[in-house]
Amino acid sequence: MSNAGRTALPAFLRAAEHDAAREYRRTALGGFLRAHRARIEPDPRWPVVDTHTPRRVTGLRREEIAWAAGVSVDYYTKLEQGRSVRPSAAVVGSLATALQLGPLDRRYLQALTAEDPSDQHSSDVSVQAAEQTLRSIAAQIQDAVMVQVLTGDLTVRSIDPRAARILYPDRDIDDVVGTDVSLLSYLFGDPVSRTVYVDWSAKAREVVGLVHLRMAVAGPTPELLRTIEQLWLSSSAFRYLWSRFEPHDKASGMWRLRIDGQIVECDFATMKTPTSPDIALVVYHRSAAQ
Known about the structure:
- One of its GO terms (molecular function) is DNA binding.
- Residues 59-107 form the HTH cro/C1-type domain.
- This is Transcriptional regulator, contains XRE-family HTH domain.
- InterPro entries: Cro/C1-type_HTH, Lambda_DNA-bd_dom_sf, MLTR_LBD.
- This protein has 290 residues and is an alpha+beta fold.
- 46% of the residues lie in helices and 14% in strands.
- The protein has 2 domains: 3-112, lambda repressor-like DNA-binding domains (434 Repressor (Amino-terminal Domain), Orthogonal Bundle), CATH 1.10.260.40; 124-286, Beta-Lactamase, CATH 3.30.450.
- It has helices at 3-6, 11-14, 20-37, 62-69, 73-80, 89-98, 103-112, 124-139, 161-167, 183-189, 193-196, 200-217, 222-234, 236-242, and strands at residues 146-151, 155-156, 181-182, 252-259, 262-273, 276-286.
- The chain has a 4-stranded antiparallel sheet with strand order 1-6-5-4. Strands 2-3 form a two-stranded antiparallel sheet.
- Strand 5 and strand 6 (276-286) form a beta hairpin.
- The longest helix is centred in the first third of the chain and has 18 residues, at 20-37.
- The radius of gyration is 21 Å and the shape is elongated.
- The N and C termini lie far apart (48 Å).
- 32% of the residues are buried.
């Protein structure tokens, strides 16, 4: 395959900006369904499973998952092909059960098949007010290893000195402090991220998954669309992870960071204000176990 073929933009990036959310949900639904049925082994007890004919596909065939979900093969095929993206709640529930989805994947599937997420972003005024509140909280957390004020499209707003020293050990922090940093661009565009995040692959999967969930639930911002397009054209790792359609939604956990040449386990927790879910404060502390 030519390089141009490998990097052809997804349909939602070729669509007009006001149609991007709808087009994403249409194509993501098909990709999500295909990815998940490929992970399920056929049950030989099902009447639609032919145990005598060699299988040419990994996982379930369309007719098998359609039977398990109680829908026609034609209807299921339309779902995978993005020709019918408004199944009933009952059909969505049946598909989720047939695909053996966990709670987060069910939430993602429900978001992909719900009403278009038009204008679900917080107003600029509420975001600014929330950011001021979160920054006031961050200023009082003196023992944190790192704090980040993070937007819904995963941009670290006005990066502070603590985060700059950790994320950019190869740069003069005066060149970084106060700037906005896209976590997507940082992880897939700056090689130093693979040194800073010891478990880079897991972090990359998480961030891509957070974007998938964001796109399904609230739709993209213009800035997020531009970032995705840039990475789609420049990063094979991003294209691979994006095409897996694995949503993530983790408000707390642990990451291993390389700080001053040493690997440091850091617990993180996320907090938001009730008035604006589009911005959050992420606080990293050194793990108590260390």
